[in-house]
Each structure stands twice: as C-alpha cells, then as structure tokens.
Design a protein that fits this description.
The protein has 306 residues and is mainly alpha-helical. The chain contains 16 helices and no strands. The longest helix has 42 residues. One of its GO terms (biological process) is mRNA export from nucleus. GO terms for molecular function: mRNA binding; RNA cap binding. This is MIF4G-like type 2 domain-containing protein. InterPro entries: ARM-type_fold, CBP80, MIF4G-like_typ-2.
Length: 306
C-alpha cells in the first residue's frame, strides 16, 4: 500500500521536533517535498512556484498536532518555528493554505481556531486580507451560521483598525513634537544643554515623512480589507438568491437571514472605519444593479450614519 505524499516527511519531522531541532533543520526535512502545483512541469518552472501546499500541509499539521496538548504548547511551537512559518507563508495563497490547515485540525474546537488565528495575526504569519479571503471561501460558507467564524472576522478587522489607529497616533505625536521643537528653537535659548536635549527628542522631517507613508499604506490595507469583506458578502448572498430563483425556492432560509444579519453587524460594529470608505463602497460594490435585499442593508447603514 502506497502512503500519502508527505507521510515519510511528516514522520521525520515528528522525530526532528521531539529531538528539539532548530527551525533550519525542520526546513531541511521539508526541502525535498514535490510541489503538487507544479506536477509535470520542468524543474525550472517548479522553482518559480508561488508556494508549496504539500510543505505547508506537512509542516502545519505535524507541528500543531504535536502542540495540541494546550494553547501554551501550540503558542510555544508557533514561536519556536516562527521562521519556518514566515518562509512558507510568502504569499496570500500560502497564508490561506496555512489557515485551511489550522481549520482542518481544529474545526471541532472552534475556540482554538480563534486563538490560533489571532496568534498568527499578531506574529504576522498571516495578514488580515488573507484571513478575510479564507473566511469567505466556498468551503467555509456552510459554517456561516456558527458565531465563532464571525468572531475571527471581527478580531481580524479590529487588528487592522488598531494598527491604523496606532500609526495615526504616532504620526500625530511626531508632528506635535516637531512643531514644538521648531517654535522653541526660534525663542531665545537660556541653556545650550536644554537646546541639545530638545534637538535629540525632535523627530526629523524625513522620519515624519516615512511615518506618513506607513500610515497611507495602512489606510490602503484597511480599505482593501473592507472591500474584500463586503465584496465576498455580496457574492455569497447574490449566489444564494440566484440559485433559489433558478430552483423556484424561497430564499428566506436560516442561513440567508443569519448571513444578512452578519453583514449588518459588520456595518454597525465597525461603522467609524466603514464610514470613511462609504463612497468607495457605493461606487464599486453597492451599485444600483445589486439585488435590492442586499442593497437595502447598505442604504440602512448610510441612513444611520448620515
């Protein structure tokens, strides 16, 4: 009987991790695994593969299985092999593959899924946009009536919002410090030492410009995250309505009511941030040709925030 691809590597990895191997040694075990995305292609093409799902499957399943005794065991495993995660999670598709493996292993213990995704966001193994794309993938749609899925979505949006807020606060402080330093330098200086101290504390204009660029990039990421979330809501609800119309079935199912309720919840919980992008959402997503049932949710939000 032939074993599944990666079985031998998984056994080697178990031995390796139990023998307290280094991240580099763990990577060595995975090195020779073939890439199923590049089967039948030339070796040169295999080198250019965006990511290797087999490597991710073997590594994530093995490591999280070994660390499954408790949350602290899982966190310790993620921390120790963070370098390997970062190497494997080089693209959004690779990050989604990691999340699928977390789900596959822990879907019967949803709280563990929430905790692990949160940890992977905090340690920058996965990005917010990858989490949102994974949550709205077709295989997750049947679980939309489960609250923990939306808990993951909200913690992901919160993570992005806090990041933007932190950068915004830091920039504001730097601008104020620069303004204070400039105004005090024009006053008569009593002591040279106090002037030197102020010059040391004063951020450079270049540093402030870099902070502005980082904040602008963060705003772009935040906007993209909301566009992904609302676009996926629209797609998944529209597909349901079209399918019901084709099959002459009543679309007003428990799943549909639950999903529309979750869409409303995203608008209400994150209204401050969503409001900033409402004109973009109206132009790109919530257009007049959209099904009125879905469009009404957006119009209700606009009416509430007007």
């Amino acid at each position: 009987m032939t074993s599944l691809p990666g079985t031998e590597a998984a056994h080697q990895l178990v031995v390796c991790v139990r023998n307290k191997c280094t991240p580099e040694e763990a990577l060595n075990v995975l090195r020779e695994l073939p890439n199923p995305l590049r089967e039948g292609e030339q070796p040169a093409a295999a080198q250019a593969a965006p990511y290797n799902p087999l490597k991710i499957d073997v590594f994530v399943q093995t490591l999280l299985n070994l660390g499954s005794k408790s949350i602290s065991h899982s966190f310790a495993a993620i921390s120790k092999f963070h370098y390997v995660f970062k190497i494997l999670a080089e693209s959004e598709e690779a990050q989604i593959c990691i999340l699928r493996n977390v789900w596959e292993l822990w879907q019967r213990h949803p709280q563990m899924v929430c905790v692990l995704v949160d940890k992977m966001l905090k340690t920058q193994i996965v990005e917010c946009n990858a989490v949102a794309t994974w949550l709205f993938s077709k295989e997750m749609a049947p679980f939309f009536t489960h609250g923990y899925l939306w808990e993951v979505l909200h913690l992901t949006i919160d993570k992005m919002n806090k990041h933007v807020s932190k950068l915004s606060g830091e920039l504001q402080e730097a601008r104020e410090a620069l303004a204070r330093a400039d105004s005090s330098s024009s006053d008569s200086e009593d002591e040279n030492s106090s002037k030197k101290k102020k010059d040391q504390d004063k951020p450079t204009e270049e540093a402030v410009e870099r902070m502005e660029e980082r904040l602008e990039a963060a705003h772009m990421d935040q906007k993209r995250l909301f566009l992904i979330v609302f676009q996926r809501f629209i797609m998944i609800l529209s597909e349901h309505l079209v399918r019901c119309d084709t099959d002459a079935r009543d679309p007003d199912t428990h799943w549909y009511r639950s999903t529309v309720g979750r869409l409303r919840q995203v608008f209400l919980i994150h209204h401050e941030q969503v409001q900033k992008y409402s004109s973009t959402l109206e132009t790109l997503l919530f257009t007049q040709d959209l099904d009125p049932h879905i469009l009404d949710v957006f119009h209700q939000f606009i009416a509430l925030t007007a």
